[in-house]
Amino acid sequence: MELPRQDPDQLLRAIRNDASTKKSGKLKIFFGYAAGVGKSYAMLQAAHQAKERGIDVVAGYIEPHARPQTMALLDGLEQLPVKQVAYEGMTLREFDLDAALKRNPQLILVDEFAHTNAESSRHTKRYQDIQELLNTGIDVYTTVNVQHIESINDTVASITGILVRERIPDSAFDQADQVELVDIEPAELLERLASGNVYREDQAQRATVNFFTLENLTALREIALRRCADRVNLLTESARVQSRGDYHTDERILACLSSSPSNAKNHSDCCKDGKSLSGNIYRSLCGNAKYSGDE
């Protein structure tokens, strides 16, 4: 499975932070491959741990879940009231950015990084709300699934048949100070779904038909793992460049070319491996082989 890749230099510039000048808050993303893997649960657990360390923590917005264990973790945390917004005869629950700025905690929890705000909101997207919080020096914990990352959206749609409309730019993800992958086996996630620990019964039945299949979840999990691995590679390369270190952690592949009929396929396989691993390919001509760069 090939994923679209951004220019490495561009990403390195995006994630490189200068500690001497950076005064904004820190962003931590709890990252998963599907609803129900435990992102909000992990975020709330981390919030309680931060509170125990004496940090001023506020729950700015937590998406309502049909998951008693998750919602129980709100006990003991200060919660900001949500903003009620009237929209086409409905009342929407939105994160109250102004209330959060006025409260000015050290750390705030804002669920659903990719959420699209109501039309009357100051910002179109929640990730823009979070950026404003960061700019004032407030640390933020948030959550997002892999299918909401812009460059991966088309790949996910080709696998699941569902086009996810709420997206975040790759830069919003790559510039996070921390990304914690919240991961479970797809089979275990399906068990959670069947037991009612992800969606209510009617939602769960629709989900198993449209999205939550073992094949889909396995593919999404692979994409999420690779996206995290790509980010770690970029962080490692950034640290190496900044420290002027003389080491490399990327893969290097040696392709031995010959006059064998299988040569073309072997070379093609090496090229695919090199691309998927972001590695360098070195070619060696064996015997009387003649290599053409067109192969």
- Any idea what the radius of gyration is? 23 Å
Largest sheet: 6 strands, parallel
Query: What is the terminal-to-terminal distance?
Result: 22 Å
- Overall outline: globular
Q: Name the poorly predicted regions.
A: none
**How much of the sequence is in beta strands?**
15-25%
- What is the count of β-strands? 10
How much helix is in the residues?
A: 40-55%
How are helices and strands ordered from N to C? HEHEHEEEHEHEHHEHHHEHE
Explain this structure to me?
The chain has helices spanning 8-15, 39-52, 68-72, 97-103, 126-135, 153-160, 170-174, 186-194, 201-210, 214-243, 263-276; strands at residues 27-32, 57-61, 78-79, 83-87, 90-94, 107-110, 139-145, 178-181, 252-257, 280-285. It has 295 residues and is an alpha/beta fold. Helix 1 packs across helix 10 (214-243). The radius of gyration is 23 Å and the shape is globular.
Secondary-structure blueprint of this entry?
Blueprint: H1 8-15, E1 27-32, H2 39-52, E2 57-61, H3 68-72, E3 78-79, E4 83-87, E5 90-94, H4 97-103, E6 107-110, H5 126-135, E7 139-145, H6 153-160, H7 170-174, E8 178-181, H8 186-194, H9 201-210, H10 214-243, E9 252-257, H11 263-276, E10 280-285
Parallel strand pairs: 1-7, 1-8, 2-3, 2-6, 6-7, 9-10
Antiparallel strand pairs: 4-5
Helix pairs in contact: 1-10
Features of this protein?
single chain; 295 residues; alpha/beta; two-stranded antiparallel ribbon; 10 strands; 41% helix
